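Input (3-hydroxy-2-methylbutyryl-dehydrogenase):
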Amino acid sequence: MKITGDLVFFITGGASGLGEATVREIHAKGAKVAVADFNEERLALLEKELKERIFTIKCDVTKEEQVKNAIDKTVEKFGTIHAALACAGIATVSVTLSSRGSLDIGLFKSTTEINVYGSVYVAKYAAQVMSKNKPINDKGEKGVIMFVSSVAAEEGQRGQVAYSSTKGAINGIVLPMARDLGRYGIRVLSIAPGIFMTPLSHAMPENVMKRLNADTAVNRSGTPDEFAHFVTACIENTYLTGVTLRIDGGIKFSNL
Ligand SMILES: NC(=O)c1ccc[n+]([C@@H]2O[C@H](COP(=O)([O-])OP(=O)(O)OC[C@H]3O[C@@H](n4cnc5c(N)ncnc54)[C@H](O)[C@@H]3O)[C@@H](O)[C@H]2O)c1
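Output:
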């Protein structure tokens, strides 16, 4: 699906980090972009800066009715949705057993609510809208749904039981959903980033970041615009579906 001014994107978590970089990249290509996030302040700044072809809406992705409402409002504003990126997510840390306690089940649940349920709600309601689109090219494409996984799905660190499980769930969702939706002209895929410089990773201590960067083949973290370029390449490649693709600077984690 070629990104042109005729396309409408719906992006959760678009007020910061990887989601925001993708909003900017896609907007710069002339498409219309709806951004759903619970950070109203940053949404307002983004809307003020980008001015046209941007629609922002406050939305907590853990609330199914709020995700449905954000999608309904996007359709009211722009007529439809061609591509959705479920980028809202959090990274949490709680070790299974330590001298200070054991796995925080409340945190496990809240991480799952945001990273898994929050992504699945987006896919469910976006698919309903996309299925009504007319095919936009000779491949019969009507839409693309993209999830954001993590290399932690395969290589979780100490304390990442909750986070890694949510990203593993995303990896597991992609193929069956692609099979469900292929007949409707909708592709489904997931991107698994390594370490990228965003507010989420800034929360990590400097010495940890240094060690993580040393585990890449390029001795650095990725930049949000490198992630955004990859999203656009995946959207434009009409044969990509049912797969999770890593963008990770060749990272292979040592056991920290
Ligand atoms: N940065 C990395 O190194 C990295 C690596 C692997 C995967 N990821 C994944 O990429 C995604 C984006 O991460 P980021 O680094 O851009 O983080 P970020 O913290 O910069 O941005 C996350 C955005 O999600 C929003 N958000 C969080 N909870 C929400 C909720 N319940 N409802 C609506 N919006 C909510 C926040 O307001 C924020 O705007 C996440 O799924 C994360 O797990 C990031």
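The beta strands are 8-12, 32-37, 54-58, 83-86, 97-98, 101-102, 143-148, 186-193, 243-247.
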